[in-house]
Design brief:
This protein is an alpha+beta fold. The protein has helices at residues 15-23, 28-31, 123-146; strands at residues 2-11, 37-39, 49-52, 61-63, 66-71, 75-81, 92-102, 105-115. It has a five-stranded antiparallel beta sheet, with helices on one face. Strand 5 and strand 6 (75-81) form a beta hairpin. Helix 1 (15-23) crosses helix 3. The radius of gyration is 15 Å and the shape is globular. It starts with a strand and ends in an 8-residue tail after the last helix.
Length: 154
């Protein structure tokens, strides 16, 4: 089973500026409403660490994707296994950021592809929670790239 989420935002900035914001992991807590802590570097083969807002008082979510593509000013692709059982094919994810020229600025696409046996059990929740989070991240990235001061949500 495969499930895809795809969203985009048009940004009035250069591809270089958008790339700079997107790849500055230590600055994520200053602007990113979806990822509250980020560590690592966008080099192929590197494992990153992303902390998401807590789902509830007891559950904190940390993702550990591997960088599978890093083409400067163009594309980032990350892959991760979401289920800690270590069994491939239960719930695997690939997240792609694509920066493309558009109307004198850029269009940033975010695409998340989920594969596995557990995907059908999560699609309703993903549409309800994950898509709005990706859109909020897009809006915050746009503001930061365009130089608009944005306060950290929360």
């Amino acid at each position: 089973m495969t499930f895809e989420l795809r969203t985009f935002v048009d940004i009035d900035a250069t591809a270089e500026r958008v790339w700079q914001v997107l790849t500055d992991l230590p600055a994520y807590p200053l602007w990113n409403p979806f990822i509250t802590h980020a560590e690592g570097s966008f080099a192929v083969g590197e494992r990153l660490s992303f902390t998401l807002p807590p789902v509830n008082a007891l559950l904190r979510v940390t993702l550990r994707p591997t960088v599978v593509e890093a083409t400067p000013c163009r594309r980032l692709r990350l892959r991760s296994r979401q289920v800690k059982l270590g069994i491939p094919g239960l719930f695997d994810a690939e997240h792609t950021f694509t920066v493309a020229p558009h109307d004198g600025g850029v269009r940033l696409w975010q695409e998340q592809r989920l594969h596995g046996l557990l995907v059908p059990l999560t699609t309703r929740s993903l549409n309800r929670h994950r898509l709005p989070a990706l859109n909020a991240m897009n809006a915050a990235l746009k503001d930061r790239s365009e130089g608009t001061p944005a306060a950290r949500p929360g």
